[in-house]
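Illustration 12: Ribosomal RNA small subunit methyltransferase E.
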Amino acid sequence: MTAPVFVVDAVPGAGNFLLDGPEGRHAVSVKRLREGEELVLVDGRGRWAACEVVAAEGKDQLTVRVAEVHEDPAEEPRITVVQALPKGDRGELAVETMTETGVDAIVPWAASRCITQWKGDRGLKALAKWRSTAREAGKQSRRTRFPEIADLMTTKQVAALLAEADFAAVLHEDRDHPSGALATADLPAKGSVVLVVGPEGGVSPEELAAFGAAGAKPYRLGRSVLRTSTAGTAATALVLGRTGRWS
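Figure caption equivalent — predicted structure in token form:
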């Protein structure tokens, strides 16, 4: 099993470093790391360091020795999923599984057919929960770069994002749609890929028209219809495999 990952604001240079606060508590009281064991410090932006535990003190302080610092470059193509707001806690499920799979960015989208609405304090809390979920899933999956969770976007803002992409697709539930399958689409080796996942009620004709005007075509994933909380994960995995990021 690979060494556990802990998140810090900034990865320190070579030498001793004190890991404290919530991450230190988790390392000492939950993981029960002791002298000689290994761990990895990451900042979630690609910088990381392999470390060895020097000593544990109290319930939330761990002194580690940083041997060498590394920085992983951003991978290409960059994959962004525009995720229509699902019902209940299925939004966090979508964020968790997409993060574990390898998505680079997630954009919450207020589609016209979304039952869930993010407004006021409720919206801010929901966004914070998505970001916390991405951070924890990034740690669990041993990522050094965590996905960016954007602010909630309108259809107009999503269309502007699609217009800037090197490849833009709207995942469509119609298996006989003339645009064909994402599995056979011509994907770029570099640049940006943006995938739009609609709500349970589907993407409206007006939204499809707006996205089409921005250069996004509808594509199907397969013969079965996936839920909005799983479609983004499946599409991300497909793109990762086809573009060589999983090679």
